[in-house]
């Protein structure tokens, strides 16, 4: 059974935030951003965990923006992305933990990015 294409603006912002957060975890662990293969895998994980459906174009557009947003956020506030803050982005089940100020900030950046570019 296939999922319908059902990502509204907030769901797209949450997926984008998940990808940005995944970039931060990779950067913290390895010193490098996620590879394209890992971004694709992270997208699939989020879609499966959240019952979301997105077409290829939607997935590619979100995935391609994630690293750009992560890089900008790191430049704006490098101290916000220390080991404790990055690991606090996720709960035990690898879902975003919106109790974390960094996760909320990343979500707001992603939501703003989507609305400013009128990609909703």
Q: Could you describe the 3D structure shown?
A:
Helix 1 packs across helix 3 (56-76) and helix 3 (56-76) packs across helix 5. The chain has one domain (9-116). The longest helix is centred in the first third of the chain and has 22 residues, at 9-30. The protein is mainly α and 120 residues long. The chain has helices at residues 9-30, 36-50, 56-76, 83-87, 101-116.
Largest sheet: none
Low-pLDDT windows of residues: none
Global Rg? 13 Å
Helix fraction bin: 55-70%
What is the succession of H and E elements? HHHHH
User: What is the count of structural domains?
Assistant: 1
Strand-helix topology:
Blueprint: H1 9-30, H2 36-50, H3 56-76, H4 83-87, H5 101-116
Care to give the gist of this entry?
The chain is built from five helices and no strands. By secondary structure, the chain is mainly alpha-helical. The longest helix has 22 residues, at 9-30.
């Amino acid at each position: 059974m296939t999922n319908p294409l059902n990502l509204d603006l907030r769901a797209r912002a949450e997926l984008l935030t998940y990808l940005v957060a995944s970039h931060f975890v990779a950067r913290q662990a390895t010193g490098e951003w996620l590879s394209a293969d890992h971004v694709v895998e992270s997208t699939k994980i989020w879609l499966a965990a959240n019952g979301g459906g997105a077409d290829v174009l939607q997935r590619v557009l979100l995935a391609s923006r994630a690293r750009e947003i992560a890089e900008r956020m790191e430049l704006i506030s490098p101290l916000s992305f220390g080991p404790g803050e990055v690991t606090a982005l996720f709960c035990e089940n690898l879902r975003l933990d919106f109790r974390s100020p960094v996760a909320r900030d990343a979500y707001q950046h992603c939501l703003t990015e989507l609305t400013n570019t009128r990609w909703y």
